Amino acid sequence: MPKKSFVSRAEDKWTINDFPQMDRDKLARRLPPITATHFYNLHSCPTRVYLDMHGDHYKRLPLSEFLRQKIAEGVEHERSVLSGLPDLTHIDYETDQEGLHKTLDAMRAGASIISQGVLVHEGMVGRPDLLIRDEGVSIFGPYQYYACDIKSGRSVKFAYQLQVAFYSDLLGKTQGTVPTRAGVILHDGKERRVDLLRVRQRFEEAKQHITSIRDGVKDHPHLCAACKECGWRAVCKEELLGSGDLSLINGLSREYRAAYYNIGIKDITELSQSAVKPSRISQRVADNFRVQARSLIEHSPVLIHKIELPSSQSIIYFDIEGETEQKIYYLLGCLLVQDGVTTYHPFFAEKPSDERQMWNAFLTWIKTIPDFHIIHYHNYEKYALAGLRRKYGCPDELYKTISSHMTDLFKLVKDSIAFPIHSYSIKDLAKSIGFCWRSDTPGGAQSLYWYAIWAKTGDASIKEALLHYNEDDCQAMKHVVEHIQNSFNT
Predict the structure, then answer these.
(1) In CATH, what number is assigned to the domain containing residue 263?
(2) Dihedral of CA 110/113/118/119: which sign?
(3) In this structure, what are the phi and psi dihedrals at residue 341, rounded to the nearest 5 degrees?
């Protein structure tokens, strides 16, 4: 066991020297290679990189259906891109050493495009999707190679840039010439250039960080939005709960946690009892953190101030399902409460090309609802409505009426009541006060997975599950409003 607990101070880290000699020898023999995946994951969570390298993989949760679907789509997209490339030399191999030898042979032969090559250097293994011959000079002759990755995303994310910078670093050591360019092929099959000079410093910092993790240094885990789809979330959550970590407070960032540590506040108990705050944090934010900490410790909601809920003849609980990156919306769910009667009205795009029809049907319907007020959760619905209006239009007066009669329940709750929860998603909030979804795995990612399956199969049961999920989201908002009315506004 380690000699010290890394949760005692933010800057504390485990290193290989904190283990007994026998354990250090075993750890040193099993140091895993550094790969491009580590650069991708480091961008969102260093602890994930550590656990991927050194964690007990029996404790890792399986991938969600959504992530498995995204991986499958990525593989299919890669196949599609590769099938359209001329003069392709594909590397088949069983071990990295075999792959390296075959890659070097292809580079010596001057292959135009090499797919699935392998690059190895001092504990680092790169498997770029493509190595593309380019003008220049290398140890192989009057040419050199640059790395290009194939991604199904719609923009060159910074994590992608780190990955191709990693391949480029390995290429420089392999061909004797550091490439001057790198690329990423996106969803449309077109290559975007990556500025290696611009990303160079941050890549070197990332490489140094990952090397220290590989050698046994563990960053302090931090509860954040990225945890929701991470297979290690249960491992980290158990650790953070045990130490009363400050990141259990919703909205308290890594930077804020470090600021609290610097003034001697290390857990939620100390924060709840202290009137002192870091200078960089405003008094209003510090007060909210303190109330939230108190709620977590007491396992009970704390009223900050009374909530003024909207009052109209017709209340519409509104939830939109869509794909943010592609700006595609496929379901506008409306739970109408009118004269004590609740009815669910879904507006569904059977396929993406039906989006306009869905939008027009929604506008036609809402014009018939007297004295309505829309309750939604967070800012996604306003963002989506604005996008749909830009795409397909909407009479100015009607859009003004809709947008001026919308209330964000998330903001109302967050500003007025501290609940003993670590995330203020509608799922976590509604579940904490007794609401249950019909699905065992409710979430936006699951909705996207269902829609993708529906689009491929037309399976009526999948559509039904999707509609039930959306209706439950609307019912969850109604449940929260009624809970507030009965518990805080009486």
Answers:
(1) 1.10.150
(2) positive
(3) -110, 135
3-state class of 28 per DSSP?
helix
Q: Is residue 2 part of a domain?
A: no
Same domain, 251 and 156: no
Domain stop point among 135, 170, 195: 195
Residues 479 and 333 in one domain: yes
Starting from the edge strand earliest in sequence, which strands make up the sheet with 130-134, in order? 88-90, 113-115, 130-134, 144-150, 182-185, 191-194
Asked if residue 122 and residue 160 are part of one domain, the reply reads: yes
Spell out the alpha helix ranges (H) of 317-379. Answer: 355-366
Which position has the token pair 């290559």?
191
> 8: pLDDT confidence band, cut at 50, 70 and 90?
very low
Q: Are residue 92 and residue 157 in the same domain, yes or no?
A: yes
C-alpha distance from residue 370 to each of 251, 367, 447 (Å): 38, 8, 31
Q: What is the pLDDT of residues 176-220, one digit of tens each?
A: 999 989 999 999 999 999 999 999 999 999 999 999 999 999 999
Cα–Cα distance for residue pair 184/150, rounded to 1 Å: 6
pTM: 0.83
Alpha helices in 60-153, H assignment, sequence order: 65-83, 96-108
Structure tokens at 45: 């969570």
The per-residue pLDDT for range 327-337, each reduced to its tens digit, is 789 999 999 99
What are the tens digits of pLDDT across the range 114-154? 999 999 999 999 999 999 999 999 999 999 999 999 999 88
**Residue 322 bridge partners (DSSP):** 329
- 275 and 324, same domain (yes or no): no
DSSP string, 141-204: BS-EEEEEEE--SSS--HHHHHHHHHHHHHHHHHHSS--S-EEEE-TTS-EEEE-HHHHHHHHH
Count Cβ atoms within 10 A of the Cβ of residue 212 and give its class: 0-12 exposed, 13-18 middle, 19 or more buried.
middle
CA distance 288 to 290: 5
The answer as to whether 72 is a domain residue is: no
| Domain that includes residue 90, residue range | 85-195
Residues 471 and 410 in one domain: yes
C-alpha angle 64/220/65, rounded to 5°? 0
- Same-domain check for residues 177 and 271: no
In the chain, the number of structural domains is 3
pLDDT of the residue at 80: 94
Q: Tell me the per-residue pLDDT of 51-94, one tens digit each, with 9 for 90 and over.
A: 999 999 999 999 888 888 888 889 999 999 999 998 999 999 99
Q: Indicate whether 380 belongs to any domain.
A: yes
